[in-house]
């Protein structure tokens, strides 16, 4: 049984959700800590007790986005298993993340804020480059086993994930389209796998 959240944790989460809503609606620069406090239905003092500045509150939103991006299911490379099944498991985990509305809201806030501040964008990219994703690690292992061509693993991982994002991330972020239905998720993942393996799999 999961223990109930403490009041202070619930207030912190309310503040973060209020900040996401306000940043998304009004932008980072216009949004005030007063407005965030009002939206979260807490005092301004409570907001500052949790987050000493608006920048630190935004940094926490970026941290949550980063945590979701890097929480994709890590599938350890299995030398005796077909490549397609292993990769499909990884890509479906990524697709699940891309279809999560909380993740999309975080991404919208982060992208909107970084458009007005290149420094924030550079910081976000630097964070994302600090840790290799599970797919990059898996591709490197498959290459070491002689089953994939020796392309840069990070490039190959970025390439196939870009195929997913062109259907399941950017249209939702830029055009407000709904997340993909399950059948379309399967189609996108399977077609991306077809192209990737046709290009990089060794006989």
Layout: helices, strands, pairs:
Layout: H1 7-26, H2 33-40, H3 44-50, H4 54-69, H5 83-98, H6 101-116, H7 118-128, H8 134-144, H9 153-168, H10 170-175, H11 182-200
Structure description:
The chain contains eleven helices and no strands. The chain is mainly α. It folds into two domains: 1-52, Homeodomain-like (Arc Repressor Mutant, subunit A, Orthogonal Bundle); 72-200, Orthogonal Bundle (Tetracycline Repressor, domain 2), CATH 1.10.357.10. The protein is elongated, with a radius of gyration of 20 Å. The chain starts with 6 loop residues before the first helix and ends with a helix.
Could you say what the CATH architecture of the largest domain is? Answer: Orthogonal Bundle
Count of β-strands: 0
The largest β sheet comes out as: none
For CATH, the homologous superfamily of the largest domain is named as: Tetracycline Repressor, domain 2
Q: Give the CA-based shape.
A: elongated
- Strand % is under 5%
Figure out the total of helices: 11
What would you report as the Rg, rounded to the nearest angstrom?
20 Å
Unreliable residue runs: none
Cα(first) to Cα(last) distance is: 49 Å
Assigned CATH class of the largest domain: Mainly Alpha
What is the number of domains?
2
Average pLDDT across residues? 86
CATH level-3 fold name of the largest domain: Tetracycline Repressor, domain 2
H and E string: HHHHHHHHHHH
Helices and strands: which structural class?
mainly alpha
Give the proportion of residues in helices. over 70%
């Amino acid at each position: 049984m999961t223990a109930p959240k403490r009041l202070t944790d619930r207030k912190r989460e309310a503040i973060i959700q209020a900040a996401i809503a306000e940043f998304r609606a009004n932008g980072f620069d216009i949004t005030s800590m007063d407005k965030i406090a009002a939206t979260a239905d807490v005092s301004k003092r409570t907001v500052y007790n949790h987050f000493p500045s608006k920048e630190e509150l935004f940094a926490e939103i970026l941290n949550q986005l980063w945590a979701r991006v890097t929480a994709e299911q890590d599938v350890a490379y299995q030398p005796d298993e077909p490549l397609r099944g292993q990769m499909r498991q990884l890509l479906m985990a990524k697709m699940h993340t891309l279809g999560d509305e909380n993740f999309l809201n975080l991404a919208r806030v982060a992208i909107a804020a970084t458009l007005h501040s290149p420094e924030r964008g550079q910081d976000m990219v630097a964070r994302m480059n600090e840790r290799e994703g599970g797919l990059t690690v898996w591709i490197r292992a498959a290459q070491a086993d002689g089953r994939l061509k020796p392309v840069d693993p990070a490039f190959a991982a970025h390439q196939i994930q870009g195929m997913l994002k062109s259907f399941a991330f950017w249209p939702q972020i830029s055009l407000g389209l709904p997340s993909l239905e399950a059948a379309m998720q399967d189609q996108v993942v399977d077609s991306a796998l077809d192209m990737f393996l046709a290009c990089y799999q060794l006989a």
